[in-house]
Amino acid sequence: MPSVLSQRRKPVSPNHVSELRQLLHDTSAELRTSTDVDYDRSVARWSKAAVKPAGLVVVPTTTEEVSIVVKYAAEENLDVAVKGGGHSTAGASSTDGGLLFDLDKMRTVRVDSDKKLFIVGGGANWGDVDQAAAPYNLATVGGTVADTGVGGLTLGGGYGWLSGLYGLSIDILIQCTVVLANGDVVTASEQNNADLFWALRGAGQNFGVATEFIFQAFDVSPDVYAGLLLFEPTPHNIQRVTEAVNRTYAINSAGQIKVAGRGTGGMGFMRPPGLDAAMIAVPIIYFGTAEQGQAVYRDFFDLDPKISTMSMVPYAEINKFLAPPYGLRASMKGAAFTLPLRPAFVQKLFEEYQKFGDGNDDAQGSILLWELLDTRKVTELDAGSFANRGTHGNVLICPIWTKPENDAAYREWARHINEKFKKELADHSGEEVGPAVEVTTIRGRKKATQFYGNYDHYDEKSKDIFGDNYEKLQALKTRYDPGNVFNKLFSISPLAN
Ligand SMILES: Cc1cc2nc3c(=O)[nH]c(=O)nc-3n(C[C@H](O)[C@H](O)[C@H](O)COP(=O)(O)OP(=O)(O)OC[C@H]3O[C@@H](n4cnc5c(N)ncnc54)[C@H](O)[C@@H]3O)c2cc1C
């Protein structure tokens, strides 16, 4: 396969491989080239469309090993990519011919139950955290799907089931150990290297390889009321489910929300396996008893769902039940919305979704989801360089397919749907809102786009994602990564000397 490296970066040569072997000789780090058995596992991604052929894979086991290799790669001007959980559908953790860090052997999770802390390796995924935390009935704000990486999700913000109560993953991140472009190992927190800590929380992929995270942990009851409701997508049901969403999740004129931080989930469209037809899907996670959950979500139950899987389930299980399989082709494209949703818009989007899948065998697994939560905590906090906070919610436009020849067309569909959301925001956001709700337009309070940077974006640039924070990020980038070694996701240009 031909290499399409950035002009300024060099591909990995056989000479680099042998020099790195020498440098890592006395360590436990593993090097993998395309002829090695585990190479394919290292370059595999959640979306096959994001796979690229790395010139060399380094699988470190310690921060010191990462440091040796980062320093060497920067000096040699190699193209560098870092893989945590491999979920970026934008290809941000892949390199075509360059050097790839696969952090798969840095997945330890330690629980300090006295201090209520999780100490998490840079390559762990959220399933690793759930498993370690479950015996202590502790949890933190992590991803909603177990095999998503802690690294990428946290460094770009991090929404989870507990965001309604505690904010984003970056809001409860206490410390991060990172290997900088010059190989220095730095611990960043509010107390130490506070400016770097600010940058890491939102734009972290641009500043180094994070080898350890320390998160605040919270008590959770062992079981949570959770499941999925499915409704026939008749216009009548679309109208009524949309109204139920508005009643349950919109902030009212007194600044209150019915779910009160404890209820979260979404509303959207999918074709559930076995049903062979598009349905309205309403996933619900409620941190409380079944009786309490049934009362809060009564509007939905009263609509008589065709299928309900609601029950009390162990906390760790809720990160498994909305998990599309690893290894298909997908684009997880983002968009944004404000409440109240207009039923006519939801109906229109359903028609688009149905048209995309009908008679199209390769699009059946695709999902369109309005993610729903109590946004007040996320809005109230302001940790880090993350610039997309607001009372808006995220939309997941997720075509999922298998045939490479569909790559361009299916991404185009996602772009087309994203345009619909942009227009809806521009034309209708801010309608019927009470005084407690800020009016959200396409640009938010920091003049950043409302789109979540951890989702796939084709048109947005770094300044769109970081808004007013971009200039400060540039200054910090100049200090911490002047050669822009870490440049794969919403790259921040260092300032010229
Ligand atoms: C099925 C699925 C579910 C998702 N659910 C959620 C969700 O609930 N909440 C949410 O907020 N987002 C969610 N996302 C989006 C998710 O935040 C991004 O895809 C994120 O990039 C995933 O991180 P990762 O480590 O798995 O990805 P990777 O592809 O490994 O990495 C993504 C980016 O992060 C960098 N990176 C990863 N680890 C490190 C590290 N240790 N040090 C430095 N850089 C690193 C990579 O270099 C790359 O730039 C989901 C995505 C998918 C596909």
Chart the SSEs and their pairings.
Layout: H1 14-23, E1 30-32, H2 39-43, E2 56-59, H3 63-75, E3 80-83, E4 99-102, E5 109-112, E6 117-121, H4 126-133, E7 138-139, H5 150-155, H6 163-166, E8 173-179, E9 185-189, H7 194-203, E10 209-216, E11 218-219, E12 223-231, H8 235-249, E13 263-270, E14 279-286, H9 290-296, H10 298-301, E15 307-308, E16 311-314, E17 329-330, E18 333-337, H11 343-357, E19 367-372, H12 376-380, E20 393-398, E21 400-401, H13 407-428, H14 462-466, H15 470-480
Parallel strand pairs: 2-4, 3-4
Antiparallel strand pairs: 1-2, 5-6, 6-10, 7-11, 8-9, 8-10, 12-14, 12-15, 12-16, 13-14, 13-19, 17-21, 18-20, 19-20
Bound molecules: flavin-adenine dinucleotide (FAD).
Please sum up the structure shown:
The protein is an alpha+beta fold and 497 residues long. The chain folds into 3 domains: 14-104, Uridine Diphospho-n-acetylenolpyruvylglucosamine Reductase, domain 2 (2-Layer Sandwich), CATH 3.30.43.10; 109-220, 2-Layer Sandwich (Uridine Diphospho-n-acetylenolpyruvylglucosamine Reductase, domain 3); 223-428, Vanillyl-alcohol Oxidase, Chain A, domain 3, CATH 3.40.462. The chain contains 15 helices and 21 strands.
Give a description of the structure:
The protein is an alpha+beta fold and 497 residues long. The protein folds into three domains: 91 residues, Uridine Diphospho-n-acetylenolpyruvylglucosamine Reductase, domain 2, CATH 3.30.43; 112 residues, Uridine Diphospho-n-acetylenolpyruvylglucosamine Reductase, domain 3 (2-Layer Sandwich); 206 residues, Vanillyl-alcohol Oxidase, Chain A, domain 3, CATH 3.40.462. 28% of the residues lie in helices and 20% in strands. It is built from 15 helices and 21 strands. A hairpin with a 4-residue loop joins strand 5 and strand 6. Helix 8 crosses helix 11 and helix 11 packs antiparallel against helix 13. The longest helix is centred in the C-terminal third of the chain and has 22 residues. The protein starts with 13 loop residues before the first helix and ends in a 17-residue tail after the last helix. 52% of the residues are buried. The N terminus is likely disordered. The chain binds flavin-adenine dinucleotide.
